[in-house]
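Dear colleagues,

As part of the handover before I leave the project, I'm documenting each prediction I ran so the next person doesn't have to rerun anything. This entry is a single chain, and its sequence is reproduced below.
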Amino acid sequence: MKRKALLLTAVFLLAFLLSGCSAMFLDAGNLMAPPGATGTRQEIQYALKAVAGDELNLCYPESGAYRSAIITVSDFTGSKINDVVAFFYSPENGENVNIAFLTQMDGENWKVIFQKEKAFSLVDRVAFSDFDGDGIDEILVGWGSPIGQKSDICVYDFSNDKMTEIDMETSYNELAVGDFTGDKSSELILLSLAKTEAGGENSEAVSVLSPAQARMYDLFGGKMRCLSELELDSSVIRYSLVTVSEVCSGKTACALDCATANSKMLTQILYFKNSQDGLSVFPPLSEEAMNETSRSAAGLFSRDVNNDGYLEIPTQYYLPSAYENYNNEASPLDLVVSWKRFDAENTQLLLVSREIIKGRDGYSVSLPIGWEDKVCIYIGDNMLTLYEWDGSERGELIYQIVCTDQTDLDTLYNKYELMYSEGGRYYAVLFGNSSFGMDMTALKEYFSLIS
């Protein structure tokens, strides 16, 4: 059979070559090469080649909202036509990144109005925002290298018919852009992790060389002006997610979902309190009190859980255990979460909802309001069980949800009612004799699969 297949392949190739078609068509590079640029993008590349040479080697940002080497989303010259920022490697040594800005000066031909080689090997990210309130975007570019901390950040401002580079000459680990002061223009927040070193005979002691910090800037008088700075939690080893969002009416804040040295997650909320107090952090740093947002789930981040336009913060909640000696923290993937909204005026978190996240089985179940003090819980490898709770002992079964396969559903769990099935997983429930009134219709309203 194999010999026959090889023979047919040889006959096909011979017929193809004798047909007059070029053998270049079979070249792997030709088969895999993307189509060339056309239209406006081709014109932009022609303009870039005038400064970069014919061998145009583009550089793509590593993170952020814009991952293209040629970005056309902002009118930063005020010409009523979107301009271009582009990145390419140095045509001479191929290591340093060049930045170039292009615009249609005459409404037709693209022209490079600014180009500079930077002493960095990559672009971390690009952002467009109005930092000085003139109604026209400035361009923020973070520069970096493949190792560790980002190396530098620059803001590019086009005014008086020329592009000016404002080099902040400062390193950072993360950044956020938003209107935090409410003045209708944007501010930049730069975030840095604590710098530490190990010491002692066994290198167990850790000393902090410089604390974790947040610094907020605006653009004033052609310079990036530091408006405020404050110290952050030095136990944080990584800013896992930075979210800029409205947290309550008229107040935009920055939520930092952070990984800590003890394998926990926590959230720090940065917000502008007022012109006198400047940038503030919640919860406040304290050596005595633990951050109330500390949690065991590595992938649990702040988000708008009820679609009200405000960001909610996850905090871990503990329901009573249904069985003696059962540990509710047995798995970091299964936990009960209280979602809370930040009240900036009274500096507190307000409860929005609670849910049980069964991460190992890919679903969550919201808790009805008022159940918190009336239920106890048991979470197993493939099951979630809720019982009534009188304050000291468990009572009637409310429901038990299992995640199983078809075989066990037909045998072990044949008395359970099927709720959902997806990807070979079957989610079924057994209801007890509870007076809570939970049935299949009601439970489906609270149940959701985790994507």
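The two ends are 45 Å apart (CA to CA). Confidence is low (pLDDT under 50) at residues 1-36.

All the best with the project,
I.
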